[in-house]
Amino acid sequence: MIKFSQILNEMAMSKEFIDNLRNEFLQIVSNTKKLTNYDDAMIVKKACIKWRDMLEEYLNQIRDDLNARKTSPKANTEWAEYHLNHLGPLWKFAFEVGHFPLESLEYSKKYYGKLSRVAPGEMATDEEIKGSLFNIEKINQWDAKVRRFARPAWKFLYELSDWTAREGIYGGGAESIKIQKQDSFLIDIDGISVKVVGFNDSDVYERKNFEHLKEYMKHYVDRARRVFPLLLRRQLPIVFNFTGGRGGEAAKYVNDHIEMNTWATGSPTDITRTIAHEMGHHIYEQMLSEEARKEWYRLIREDRIELDLRDIIRQWEEFKKTHDSGDKYGGEFDDHLKKTDPILYLQLTTLLHHPEYKHYNLLLAGNIKEYLDAGHEPIVWVPAHPVSGYGGKNEEEAFCEVIGNLVAYGPRTISPEIMRWFRTIVPEFKLNEQKEGDSSWISNIGKDEGRQLDLKQLSSIKTFKGRSDYIKSKLVGGPWGRRITSGTGREIFELPNGKILKLAKNPKGIAQNESECDHGLQDMYGDIVTQIVDCDENGIWIVVEQANRISKSRFKAITGLDFDKFGHWLNNEYGVNKGRHQVYSQYTITQEESQLMWDNEFANKVISMVVDLGQMPGDYRRINSWGEVNRNGKSMAVLVDYGLTEETYNTHYNKR
User: Fold this and answer.
1) Where does 157-312 show beta strands of DSSP type E?
2) How far is it, in rounded angstroms, from Cα 405 to Cα 35?
3) What DSSP string describes 480-540?
4) pLDDT at residue 399 in the model
5) Are 181 and 224 in contact (CB under 8 A)?
6) Is the whole-model pTM more than 0.85?
7) What distance separates the 2 farthest-apart alpha carbons in the chain?
8) 353 and 392 Cβ atoms separated by less than 8 Å
9) Within 13 Å of residue 646, how many CA atoms lie on the same side as its CB?
10) Rounded distance, CA 280 to CA 425, Å?
11) Cα(first)–Cα(last) distance of the chain, in Å?
């Protein structure tokens, strides 16, 4: 057992502290008026991101302090909750500061279509691309925007500082908020040098998270050793950041090391894929010859084909003739396309990361129609053999996605054409085909001494009764797990590692499992639903993180929302999306209370998921559809049962 000794630099959140924070911000943004070129603008962007990360670290500590004051006899509980609920503009301020309008040259110089005059197969010079990326008008707009967000942010911080230091019935207990800046330490994990930043060994959740990280790192080492040993021979040190907010990047390659935020390390497969992907940047930029990079660039660029977005609209119109879902944005068609034409679906996801199209969300047919109605060009370029959505960003990211998928999941996730190109570019890649063929990215998650639950074997069993009996023989009746409940579509089990297994009993359950395992849902709304750990490719079972039960009062403490009002609001807005009228009442929800819901980020995210993905929100009004999880030391309210879509309901439940 490793023992850690932390040295904490502690500061009071006083007027002087806020003055210094404000002066640092003003010093950074004052440089925008002097910018004349890309290189200077990139220096300002990096300073903004660093300052944003620092502010988010402070906001996490302020939130925790205010949560503690809600139960402290020294502070006024109502005022503590008032300040807690008004932290939103500060998070928005931090978000905007970190989004300085400038793309990185390293990621942009090889984007297809970035310069209209550059055809596939040709390369623009660095200076040409820098010139296209630097836009002083956008920078000035950003400057005005962040200054506008800054004014109420500073006002609130000063008021908060005064309140915490004040005694009396309206005071915060005459005790200033303490801000801690945490030191780091180094550790060796299976031969990999790891630097840990911001770890607090007095926090039980962070200790548990760190123990998981060590286990997950072993999974990465094992997979890399079996699939791509070159990664370990060239392995870079890794920095795990326990203080990074979700507004920052999940991970990034920084020349001589890899930086990762711990919120992005939810499972062994997650961390394996992420580290392998970032190591891909190291191999691409430091190990490949210039000739090899040019050849990979040529292969990826020449793999681009034309896609006519009008064809997508025509398919959508045909689909709507037999599917009257009322979804004006095409979420049901999106699900249909993913099942019937996965290559086309994946090609569309590449547009989500293309610099020219990423702001239009062209994955949804409704958005494509709006894009075309606005007069945009209907022909776009997409890869004929897409690696992943993110791999469509540029050829270097495609290279890294190949490595990430290979190490995490195995070669079956890569098309034969891409594998052939990859072997040409990286001849050192030697996959032990027989050994890899005997394994699977489906983990034996239920493994424990004495009994083993083999998920691969579970998938091979033909009947529901046979699968259920197999699970019970491995889990129930001992310390290895237990059955929690059973519904009309699924049977739910707790695995020995604390995860939850949902076993489909019939087509209803399979449809719900497939809905919850949707990668798009997990990518866009992963912070309001339980995270998927593993899935059967046919929807027979899924494994998810476990959430604790949550009460209505706890739900309000985390989200700032009255649960019953939130349920009425969801029902109202879902009805509006279906063409019904708003219903306001003092017994359900008033118009003023409805506006407060729209001002809440959490509520906005939930209704977006409902509308965008064709969810049925009726169950969301029951508190047992929700749970509480802790991620990176932060308590979060999440949906634990969200597989019932309109398509599933109409197909399997609404049979009249």
Assistant:
1) 178-182, 184-189, 192-197, 238-241, 251-253, 258-261, 304-308
2) 40
3) TBEEEEE-SSEEEEE-TTS-EEEEE-SHHHHHHHHHHT-HHHHHHHTTSBPPEEEE-TTSS
4) 95
5) no
6) no
7) 73
8) yes
9) 22
10) 13
11) 61
Give me the residues of the chain with pLDDT under 70, please.
1-10, 71-75, 77, 106-124, 168-172, 179-184, 200-203, 243-249, 263-266, 324-329, 428-452, 475-486, 496-498, 577-587, 643-656
How many domains are contained in the chain? 5
**Which residue type is seen at 26?**
L
The answer to the question of residue 209 being in a domain is yes
Residue span of the structural domain in which 629 resides: 549-639
- Specify the DSSP class assigned to residue 390: G
Sequence-distant (6+) residues with CB within 8 A of 248 are 49, 52, 53, 56, 98, 261
- In this structure, are residues 354 and 361 in contact, taking their beta carbons and an 8 Å threshold? no
Residue environment code for 240-269, b if the CB has 16+ CB neighbours within 10 A, otherwise e: bbbbbbbbbebbebeeebbbbbbbbbbbbb
Q: Are 344 and 270 in contact (CB under 8 A)?
A: no
What pLDDT shows up at residue 202?
63
531 and 603: one domain? no
Name the DSSP class of 451: B
β pairing state of 8-12 and 238-241: unpaired
CA 146/CA 22 separation, integer angstroms: 12
What is the layout of strands, in order, in the sheet containing 482-486?
Answer: 482-486, 490-494, 500-504, 541-544, 532-535
Look at the chain and count its residues.
656
Residues 6+ apart with CB under 8 A from 87: 59, 62, 63, 66
Q: Quick one: 519 and 573 in the same domain? A: no
* Residue 502 within any structural domain of the chain: yes
Q: Which two tokens stand for residue 270?
A: 């997650």
Residue with token string 């084909």: 305
Cα distance between residue 330 and residue 364, in whole Å: 6
Residues 148 and 226 in one domain: no
Residues 187, 276, single domain; the answer is yes
Q: Do 163 and 187 belong to one domain?
A: no
Q: Six-digit token pair at 58?
A: 């402070």
* pLDDT of res. 206: 76
Residue-level pLDDT at 267: 81
618 in any annotated domain: yes
Are both 559 and 584 inside the same structural domain?
yes
3-state class of 358 per DSSP? coil
The domain boundary residue, chosen from 181, 204, 223:
181
In this structure, the answer to whether residues 355 and 324 fall within a common structural domain is yes
3-state SS of 289-334 is: CHHHHHHHHHHHHHCEEEEEHHHHHHHHHHHHHHCCCCCCCCHHHH
User: What is the predicted pLDDT for the residue at 435?
Assistant: 38
Q: Is residue 287 part of a domain?
A: yes
Over residues 1-53, the pLDDT tens digits come to 222 333 345 677 788 888 888 988 998 888 888 889 988 888 888 888 888 88
- Predicted local distance difference test score (pLDDT) of residue 649: 54
